[in-house]
Predict the 3D structure of the following.
Amino acid sequence: MARGDAPRDSYHLVGISFFILGLGTLLPWNFFITAIPYFQARLVGASNSTTRILGTNHTGPEDAFNFNNWVTLLSQLPLLLFTLLNSFLYQCIPETVRILGSLLAILLLFALTAALVKVDMSPGPFFSITMASVCFINSFSAVLQGSLFGQLGTMPSTYSTLFLSGQGLAGIFAALAMLLSMASGVDAQTSALGYFITPCVGILMSIMCYLSLPHLKFARYYLANKPSQAQAQELETKAELLQSDENGIPNSPQKVALTLDLDLEKEPESEPDEPQKSGKPSVFVVFQKIWLTALCLVLVFTVTLSVFPAITAMVTSSTSPGKWSHFFNPICCFLLFNIMDWLGRSLTSYFLWPDEDSRLLPLLVCLRFLFVPLFMLCHVPQRSRLPTLFPQDAYFITFMLLFAISNGYLVSLTMCLAPRQVLPHEREVAGALMTFFLALGLSCGASLSFLFKALL
């Protein structure tokens, strides 16, 4: 909450800046996975022709590079790595260097990706360069996101919500950019170039927003605070930051406040052998309290990343070639997923069910494993092992609706429940543990995607 002597945020410039910075942190991941058809076209040796059209699927035996699997895995492993290394890294490198350096590196790497649209090269070198870019971009994105989260610890909680709202729109923004590129009517190469220039503009705007913060009186007031002055706001900020995931879609600030109020009213009773509030919380004791919720979070992301986008991006329309079949995957896979995922997270603004004491949550999480065979049995062309049991487009759309909304709701639910299962002084440790298990789930799902694709 803002202090009484704080200056006003004139024209909401600081809020707008953090919203754009939030958008910029997750643009790289979303723009890469949404453009999977473009990369697959390049990897089958397509030249500068119509086969490079964004949104056209190239699947089957010729997809020897397993691009969609590798791009998912190499996007999530850096998140897991930097989650483990963040304390060491953040103490050794100044905050400004981490943020500006990461933004500039991401901008340069995305500029390279855009430039490669105009460069003809064989599939092997193109794959190697692209995978290296994916790995480095997501490494810098992990550093950037963690550093900005640290800055938000000194700001009023409203700015955490704005930052997370920007992250939440990144996936929808990428899907809409894909659709606009496809519908622009220009040649395929120009369409792809325009698509990849879009995140470059977004990152450049993020850089300008960050550089403007020291010149805004409101931002200077909070960002110049000493760490000890900022610690009073850490609990509120961390509770809100925990509402983001790999798509970064936030929970509502009203629900976060309600959760914190309920935590204070319903404080778990400490066990006789449990460390009291004085002293450093035990990681093992905290883990014992939240292990089931953490496991649920791991399983939710394991299921999601095992098929999205590795399998779902391969599904094509069963209708005859035309405009609908051309736009089918960008709309029904990427745009639909991001919208329904956001809606699923919004549901926790109105109710939290089941609660932290219910055994129904693990059951609901385990039921999501049914989506793996359901998507694998949809209309994926040139499969070699499994039959196609759900050829109609309506099946895939229905599965995606349930898949996305359940992902959003269960992720947000587990993140809301974890702080309620521990004592107030243990919430910071619980937050760190849940962040680690979030990254672990993403990496496990990305790894499993190789197996599921091989079974098709």
